[in-house]
Design goal:
The protein has 451 residues and is an alpha/beta fold. The protein has two domains: 157 residues, Alpha-Beta Complex (Aspartate Aminotransferase, domain 1), CATH 3.90.1150; 263 residues, Type I PLP-dependent aspartate aminotransferase-like (Major domain) (Aspartate Aminotransferase, domain 2, 3-Layer(aba) Sandwich). 39% of the residues lie in helices and 17% in strands.
Length: 451
């Protein structure tokens, strides 16, 4: 029996009415990928206000690795809320904050003494990580990468790539941010081997210490082990090792932004563990909270302790209810049974979409790691010209057929899959099959435009 149940067209009349109210009451600057209003959700199934049941493959942009409203997270929230909803960690200590920090110190990579600071969301955690690095090193320079996404505050927006969507009209931006290319094996320049291209990327990073910022002024290099908004591009192990080498040599701090790629998303608790590279600081958020707003910076104690007392803080950061949810979520994820499910998700995604490479002219690449997968669409396989309109049409039609997917990529020409790690396989296959059918339909309908 199919899990998708459509009682009305999407969007239905009740969703349409609430959307009208939203237009009147909410800033137009706040985008919305899906024109539906959600009533309830459980696991990977979402019910809108019109009674339609959809399968969610977007997972709150990666925040729902444990799915919607899992019983163990709900129970943890209820029990904590009965005792303490809020206190503020600056005012007094409460055990859930300490317990979560202890857990993160234990599970993050590195055989050194670690400490943690909690905050509300990814942007705040990235800012804290940069603060720690700058205070520890006494330097200001930060190297980031093309295609990166680190947040929407002024500093993190400055660190983020993709100007038109995230930065247009919001300057001036923060200084001392230096951006260099990150390797993408799908876009290796013609005439170069992957090995030569990767060597060029590593050499270019070294060159940045001459052309952009001297090593003596470098506070940190910040890298997503798998680019998120950039299109789910895994960073090759040699490139991560080059970053580690430079940071060690220059006395800079290596920061792994695992906001989207962490919390078991790639089959290990942190994506950087696939490489064996150990960063100095790791940033966690999104699925860490099991749906609740929380983030963390974890790493070398001497770096985390570098600012003066009172130099960092957050009114709601590490809220006790969010801490309780995070503890429940991470303990569920950090089991062989759940972590192994990420590989299953990758296998099924590849089984569905790899065969379409010979059938769908627009399908350029299928990539990712674990339950962090993407498919990229192009107008031409020689020029690799991105085709964002194709993706927009696939997203719209998939929703109309009961599947929630969202876009990604520097050129907004990828569809990303961020399902619940242990999504039932029949639900996963049902949803992916719908998207695959839609992809083939859109390819036929827009093929004449490509020609």
């Amino acid at each position: 029996m199919p899990h998708i149940q459509l009682n009305t067209p999407i969007p239905g009349p009740k969703s349409t009415e609430i959307m009208k109210r939203r237009m009147e009451a909410v800033s137009n600057a706040l985008g919305q990928a899906m024109p539906i209003s959600v009533k309830r959700a459980k696991g990977s199934l979402v019910e809108d206000v019109d009674g339609n049941v959809l399968i969610d493959l977007a997972g709150g942009i990666g925040t729902l690795g444990v799915g919607h409203a899992p019983d163990f997270v709900v129970k943890a929230i209820q029990e904590q809320a009965e005792n303490l909803v809020h206190m503020c960690s600056i005012v007094a200590t409460y055990e859930p904050y300490v317990e979560l920090c202890e857990e993160l110190n234990r599970i993050t990579p590195g055989d050194f003494k670690k400490k943690t600071l909690l905050a509300n969301g990814g942007s705040e955690a990235v800012e804290n990580a940069v603060k720690f690095a700058r205070r520890y090193t006494g330097r200001q320079g930060v190297i980031v990468f093309e295609g990166a996404y680190h947040g929407r505050t002024n500093l993190t927006m400055s660190m983020t790539s993709k100007y038109a969507l995230f930065k247009k009209g919001f300057g001036p931006f923060a200084s001392e941010i230096y951006r260099v290319p990150a390797p993408s094996f799908y876009r290796v320049p013609k005439g170069m081997t992957q090995e030569a291209y990767l060597e060029w990327c590593c050499n270019n990073l070294e060159h940045a210490l001459i052309s952009h910022v001297d090593g003596s002024a470098l506070a940190a290099i910040v890298i997503e082990p798998v680019l998120g908004e950039g299109g789910f591009i895994p960073m090759p192990e040699p490139f991560l090792r080059k970053i580690r080498e430079i940071c060690t040599r220059e006395g800079a701090v290596m920061i792994a932004d695992e906001i989207q790629s962490g919390s078991g998303r790639t089959g290990k608790l942190y994506a950087i563990e696939h490489s064996g590279v150990v960063p100095d600081l790791i940033i966690s958020a999104k699925s860490l909270g099991g749906g609740m707003p929380i983030s963390a910076v974890t790493g070398r104690a001497e770096i985390i302790d570098a600012p003066h007392t009172g130099g960092v803080g957050s009114t709601y950061g590490g809220n006790p209810v969010a801490c309780a949810a995070a503890l429940a979520a991470i303990r569920h994820i950090n089991t062989p049974e759940v972590l192994s499910q990420a590989a299953r998700v990758e296998r099924v995604v590849r089984e569905v979409f790899e065969p379409l490479k010979g059938k769908v002219a627009a399908l350029g690449d299928v990539r990712g790691v674990g339950a962090m997968m993407a498919v990229e669409f192009v107008k031409d396989h020689d020029t690799l010209e991105p085709w964002s309109d194709f993706v927009m049409e696939v997203v719209k039609r998939s929703l109309q057929r009961g599947v929630i997917v969202i876009r990604a990529g520097l050129y907004t020409n990828c569809i990303r899959f961020l399902p619940q790690l242990d999504i039932p396989e029949d639900q996963l296959r049902e949803a992916l099959q719908v998207v695959a059918e839609v992809v083939q339909q859109v390819d036929q309908d827009l093929g004449v435009v490509r020609a």
